[in-house]
Each structure stands twice: as structure tokens, then as C-alpha cells.
Specification:
Layout lengths: L107 E2 L4 E4 L11 E4 L7 E2 L11 E2 L7 E5 L7 E5 L5 E7 L8 E6 L5 E8 L1 E4 L4 E6 L8 E8 L4 E10 L5 E5 L2 E4 L3 E10 L4 H7 L2 E13 L2 E12 L6 E4 L1 H4 L4 H4 L2 E7 L5 E6 L2 E6 L11 E2 L3 E2 L5 H15 L3 H5 L23 H9 L3
Antiparallel strand pairs: 1-2, 2-3, 3-6, 4-5, 6-11, 7-8, 8-9, 10-17, 11-16, 12-13, 13-14, 14-17, 15-16, 18-19, 19-23, 20-22, 21-22, 24-25
Helix pairs in contact: 4-6
Length: about 475
């Protein structure tokens, strides 16, 4: 193996390293908007009674009628549909939006893995899809506060632990997307606009493996961290599934599984400590996973299997709510699908789903520890739903407080009028990656924050 300097990419992008600061204040509103009568019936506002039961609360839309006439409609979105093949409306603020925003190279967080299209950038210069996972010791923390809390923390970006691509991808490569849903998207890399995908990725939130699908191209595997050792297992975990172990120079172990559907099995040639490629065209799936330590048996069980989407279903009976994720499984017929659950999922798992939890655990950037689950469907149960909540102030124990004192109503009216009269554009459109899109807490003439804290104080004193 040709030797290169050992380079581990763990530093933060310089643009992300500065602590966000709001450098200017925004004036209070000079005029107040006046209240206006409702434009008409805007749907049911009555809360569900505890006895209501829904077959599937996510099956039907809340309303299909047009918005009120005083709400303007803009048919063209200011952001271009870069690389999006479908013509249906696109969800905003989804985990995959960086695949079609800007130069399409910012990360998408599927948790626990993050993905980004390299787009020819250093250190690999690849045009494949980079896979990264951040450990605790790679985070950068701010000053420690009283009690042990820190002021802020940052996760490094741009680490190209492994890059899954195909021979022939170059500066003409096109990244496109289709099958966009709330939980998934399919990402395709083409040599140019006229060719079929060289490799496709079914990207699903919580996926146990990052899966690349090949139909006769030559797979490539690159790294910005450098290979330390690359070995192939002498015994295949399943029929038609080959297993490779990549130990990187940062000490982390990654496992790659290749499930061939026809033709030759994946046979990798390590060209140097940054680049490996297949010796023959490959048909099937190549899956990348990180081994948190002595968990290969579980990964073997799930190898060759992947999800392409998620079906969400839910029902409510009284104050008990049940919802489920049913994953669209495909791939190898032997074994179980591996998906990662977040803490708020596992804390609500029913008994059957709990039995499918494994000891495979990986840290996420902001959502705690993710736990691998071996099954096609999760069921979560919530036993204390606030089904009586409506637009009145609400207490989890007392329920809705529909009777407010005149003093409380007066305070709410004053605060609400001042809040909606602010210049939202001036507050939200700022030259800051941190503060843009947010509205800061305003202060009144007396210096008190005009927030719901003020309202709650009056609510607590109401009869």
C-alpha cells in the first residue's frame, strides 16, 4: 500500500468556529396593528373529548379548503428546485434539504450518521457521498457554567470518514432527488445529465446502514482520514454478502457489506491509503456502518437489508395515544432490518418493540444516544395525552383554564398586539447563521420581557 501522510480531519470549519453574537438591537414597533374580525370559519377549534377514538389520526388532512382571502398566496418559491426530479410540493425544513440547497454539499443529518455530497472538495476530491459520525471527544465545548453545564458546544462538519461513489463520477456529476417524504428521500449521483444513476442512496431517518445501490458501475471507496487496515472476512455473514472491515487512522472501525444480486461479488483493490475501487462492475447494494465496539454479530444479522421509506400511523383512545413507524424493508431475505431509535422513541416503546432493541448504540449530534432496533415496525405508546387542550391557557393537571380574569385578558391583549406589530422581516432576516430565522425576546418600556412569562403570572392569579 502506498503511504501518504496520516491526516485525520477533525477540525471545525472556520466559519462555524465563532460563537454567535447578536451585534445590534431592533427597535420596538412604532405603530400597533389593529384587530380585525375573523375572515370566516377556519376549521374546528374544539378539542377532542377523552372518549374520541380515531382509526388513524394521520390518514386524513385536517382541512382541504383554501386559506382565508386575507392570506396572500405565492405560487413560485424563491428557492430553486435544484436537482429535484418530482414536481409535487416540497417539504420545508426536512433533514435532507441540504441536498438541493446552495451548492448541494452541506450535510444532511439522518442520525446517527450525517451525509454530504463531496462535490470535488478536499481532502478526497471525490464526487461521491461522504459518511460521517461524530464522537464525544470530537465536540468543541464552550466555557463551563455553575453546575457543570457548558455555554455552548459544536459538532465538527466536513469529515469524510468514508466516501461511497463510482468510477467515472467527475466535475460533470449531477446530484438529483426523488421520492421525497417526511422521513426519507432517494439521492442519485449521475455522471452527467444524460446518463442513468451511477449509484443511488435510499436515505431514511435512523437508517442502520448508509446504503448505495449499483447497477453495473464500478464502486469506489475513499476516505479523508486514511485507511489503517482493510480486510475482508474469510466467511460471508450471509449468502451473496461479502464483508469488509476498514480501520481508519483515527482508530475508528467501519464495516462494509456488499450484497450482490447478480454478476460478480465485490472484490476491492486498495490503490492507496485513501482510495479503493472494485475490480469488476457490481450489481447490488453496498452498505456502510460504524462499529461502536464488538457489535459485528448484530451488524451481520442486518446486513443486506435496508429501508426505502416509513409509514406513520396513529390512534387515540381517551388519554392514551399509540403511534407506529412501519419501515418499507427490502434487500436480503435473511435477517432483520436495523434502524436507530432516539431516546424519545425508546422511552415510549411497547413491550414487543423493546424486545427488538440491541446493544448497538451511537451518539447523535444533538438528540442523545441512538439505539439500534432489529425489526420492521416500532410501536410507541403515550399514556397521558392533553386531549382537552385548546387555545385557552392549559395546565397538564388542571386542564384548560377557560375562565380568565379581566386583568389577565388585558395583559394578554397588550402583549399579543405588541408582538404581532413587530417588524418580523427586520428581526428574522439577519446576517447570522445562528440568529437568522428567529425572533428575539422583546422588552417593554419598563424593561420587563414581553413574553408568556408575564401572561402566566396573571393567569396563576386568575380565578
Amino acid at each position: 500500500m502506498e503511504e501518504y501522510p496520516h491526516t485525520t480531519v477533525t477540525s471545525l470549519d472556520e466559519r462555524e468556529s465563532a460563537i454567535p453574537q447578536l451585534t445590534r438591537s431592533i427597535d420596538s414597533p412604532k405603530t400597533l396593528l389593529q384587530t380585525k374580525a375573523s375572515p370566516g370559519n377556519m376549521g374546528h377549534s374544539q378539542a377532542c373529548s377523552p372518549s374520541d377514538i380515531f382509526a388513524d389520526i394521520f390518514a386524513d388532512p385536517i382541512a382541504t379548503n383554501a386559506p382565508p382571502s386575507n392570506i396572500k398566496i405565492q405560487n413560485e418559491h424563491p428557492v430553486p428546485r435544484k436537482g429535484v426530479a418530482s414536481h409535487t410540493p416540497i417539504h420545508t425544513n426536512k433533514f435532507y434539504v441540504n441536498f438541493f440547497l446552495g451548492d448541494q454539499t452541506a450535510p444532511a443529518y439522518a442520525h446517527p450518521y450525517s451525509l454530504h455530497w463531496v462535490g470535488g472538495k478536499a481532502p478526497t476530491g471525490s464526487y461521491g457521498l461522504a459518511i460521517s459520525h461524530v464522537e464525544d471527544n470530537q465536540r468543541v465545548y464552550g466555557e463551563q457554567k455553575t453546575g457543570g453545564a457548558v455555554a455552548w458546544y459544536l459538532n465538527p462538519v466536513g469529515i469524510q470518514s468514508l466516501v461511497l461513489g463510482a468510477k467515472g463520477l467527475s466535475r460533470d456529476t449531477i446530484l438529483s432527488l426523488d421520492n421525497l417524504t417526511s422521513f426519507s428521500a432517494h439521492v442519485h449521483l449521475r455522471k452527467d445529465s444524460k446518463t442513468s444513476p451511477a449509484v443511488s442512496f435510499p436515505v431514511v431517518q435512523g437508517m442502520g446502514f448508509v446504503t448505495g445501490l449499483y447497477s453495473g458501475t464500478l464502486p469506489t471507496i475513499q476516505t479523508g482520514v486514511c485507511f489503517k487496515t482493510v480486510t475482508r472476512a474469510t466467511k460471508d455473514p450471509k449468502p451473496d454478502v461479502a464483508k469488509f472491515k476498514f480501520v481508519l487512522e483515527d482508530g475508528r472501525t467501519w464495516v462494509i457489506y456488499a450484497h450482490k444480486t447478480k454478476g460478480y461479488q465485490l472484490d476491492l483493490q486498495v490503490v492507496n491509503n485513501r482510495y479503493a475501487e472494485a475490480k469488476n462492475p457490481f450489481y447490488g447494494s453496498i452498505q456502510v456502518s460504524k462499529d461502536p465496539g464488538n457489535r459485528e454479530a448484530i451488524l451481520d444479522e442486518a446486513s443486506g437489508i435496508y429501508a426505502t421509506g416509513v409509514k406513520l400511523k396513529g390512534m387515540v383512545s381517551g388519554t392514551k395515544g399509540t403511534y407506529s413507524f412501519e419501515f418499507d424493508r427490502t434487500g436480503h431475505t435473511q435477517g432483520q432490518l436495523l434502524m436507530f431509535a432516539l431516546p424519545h422513541h425508546t422511552s415510549s416503546f411497547d413491550d414487543l418493540t423493546k424486545k427488538a432493541m440491541t446493544t448497538v448504540r451511537l451518539r447523535t449530534t444533538t438528540k442523545g444516544m441512538a439505539t439500534g432496533v432489529l425489526c420492521n415496525k416500532w410501536t410507541m405508546v403515550e399514556n397521558r395525552l392533553p386531549v382537552r387542550m385548546n387555545f385557552a391557557p392549559f395546565d397538564l393537571d388542571k386542564g384548560p383554564v377557560s375562565m380568565l380574569s379581566e386583568e389577565a385578558k388585558k395583559v394578554i391583549r397588550i402583549v399579543a398586539q405588541k408582538e404581532i406589530s413587530q417588524n418580523m422581516t427586520e428581526q428574522a432576516v439577519l446576517d447570522s447563521m445562528y440568529f437568522s430565522g428567529k425572533v428575539c425576546v422583546r422588552r417593554g418600556d419598563s424593561g420587563r420581557a414581553l413574553s408568556m412569562l408575564t401572561v402566566c403570572r396573571h393567569w396563576e392569579n386568575s380565578p
